[in-house]
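For this section, I looked closely at the sequence of one protein beside the tokens encoding its backbone, which the following lines show:
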Amino acid sequence: MTLIRARLRHLTPGQALLIYYAFAILLGGTLLSTPLASTGSPLSFLDALFTATSAQCVTGLAVVDTGTRLSLFGQVIVLLLIQTGGLGITTFSVYLFSYLGSGFSLHSRKLIEETLLPCPYASINELIRGIFILTFAIEGIGTLLLSIRLVPQLGWAMGLYSALFHSISAFCNAGFSLFPDSVIGFRGDPLVNLTLMFLIIAGGLGFLVLQEVLGMTRRTKGHRRRLSLHSRLVLVTTLILTLGGALLLWLIEVPSELHHLSPAEGFWTMLFQSVSARTAGFNSLDLNLLATPSLFLLIVLMFIGASPGSCGGGIKTTSLALLFAILKSRLRGENHTNIFRRTIPEELTTRVLTLVLLSILVCGIAIFALLAVQTYGLPASASRGSLLAYSFEAVSAFATVGLSLGVTSSLLPAGKLIIIGLMFIGRVGILTLAFAFAQRSRRASVVYSQEQIMIG
């Protein structure tokens, strides 16, 4: 144990984080491949590994039905992976420094603050305790609300268990469900819909934003606390994306899929799907029935994802807000970026542009590879319709969403490996890159004579 701890001391935080997630996935995959985890024949190791990766990376894509194919033991393993995966991205990296060293060095603390926190925090341990307390409190409230509907249907034991499972899955933005049709059967149930949307949004806002919002009710030295720039950006962008996405989906689908529903019920359904598309993965209607523009809009919402420091994935809401702010400032001929009467550091704008470009590049390569693998040898007429389905699948995996057009179960072994890689990169990749770049020593770059090129 001493030797292992000594070796771990020499790892960078990014390497340690990768090892943590890889170990949890391998352990979960091994347990899920045992006969105890299945109701019938044991899962193949690849299917078990896929399920464990999807759970640990809080994605929700599934090659087998969780409620019927997995036993109670298997479902509990999935639930534990979801909970540790949702909390791990924020808490593990902090506790890692505390475990491997005596306290936090100035460099380690700065690294945590730049990667996880929008502003310096008084006590890291206090932050972590607050995250756990807030998480379990919200999941407990969600369990109680969902049990009101599920206990009468399933009985006390199964109803409470199902309520707990879906509450944790929703708050961690995982999208795993014990029902074969996700939550389509509860599409017209206001209690279930409102509870799930509350859990999804709370888990996608980020722990620090939630703490700031709750802190608004308290006064400090006679003055009410103000929200930080980060929290204001997150809340405004989330509101615009949620309501704007729901309105666009409703307008597109009114003539077709929603014509048999009342306007209120139709918008209610689209609102749930707009919320869920931002990394949650639950669906209250068959996505294959939606029009192509609606599916493209869902891809955009998935790619944007949730907010920094949350259980969700994607490029994050703050990145989108900064992109528009950068575009606005450059079109005005300004060399700096302002938001809400605050100037954004130039280093941060560069990181945002790098993050978005890398994300587009990774998704593009993955879509090409997935199409090459899945459509190899098929006639051209049969493969052309696959572009949308596999693009949807790839973005859903990268953004750790879990929505699918039904191609997950038909993935070939190579296709499953591509999706596993995307889910892993989408969950830990950006944080790992931040750690790696922060650890790397900066060398003075050579500056050559300037020369113009044509653009646009």
